[in-house]
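Reviewers asked in the last cycle whether our approach scales beyond single polypeptides. To address this, we selected a multi-component target totalling 221 residues and predicted its structure end to end. The input consisted of the following lines:
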Amino acid sequence: MNNELILSFIPTVVYYLSVFGVEIYTKISKTKNSFYKENKNRVSRSKAFLTVLITLLLQIPTNYFLFLYFFSTTEFRFYYIFLGIFLIDTVEYFCHRLYHTVPWLYKNAHKVHHEMVVPYTYGALYNSALESIITSSAMLLGFYYFNFNFLEYIVTISLSYFCTVCDHAYLFQNKIGFHCIHHEINSNKNFQQPFFTFYDKLFGTYQESYVSQLPRRASFA
Ligand SMILES: [Zn+2]
Ligand SMILES: [Zn+2]
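The resulting structure, written as structure tokens, was:
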């Protein structure tokens, strides 16, 4: 097996290792602070799991295809990882905001992700095919424009998978995380993901919420 074929597996492996690690962490630290009970969810855990699994398995040959025909052959540039992080957060913020602004896009592309009112780690990439295609195409155009090489792409995507798994978990005591607020409390806030929050702060869509500030009817699982 050549190196690039092995690298094509890495984002998928990182996703499930992250799921495993974060699940263990939340079990040990008992940090489940959800606003709602999980029966609010409109998709079963098994359907979300299978959908994500299929998406991530399909990504392996797609990555290799992209290596063969898409990415540059430059030397690895460490600073490109920071550029990749900025690129992913930029695409995510503006695509995500657009999904919530244009009703047709919400209904046909993004609504599926919000079937998880109470998110969980392995559902982090539970998206409709249309959303996956739009967001991934926008990111790939960015990677192509900036002349990323294959390893830079794999490292950036793998880091984003680790962060998106963390985004869909309840990692803190007495606090619902930034992206879980978007799922559970106010879907018109907190669009940026998976790394930072500066676009939300810049454009007035940032909401930080602690459990103690939530309405009394809050029911903590
Ligand atoms: Zn989400
Ligand atoms: Zn959303």
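The helical segments are 3-29, 45-69, 79-101, 103-110, 129-145, 150-167, 178-184, 198-202. We regard this as preliminary and will revisit it once experimental data from Aim 1 are available.
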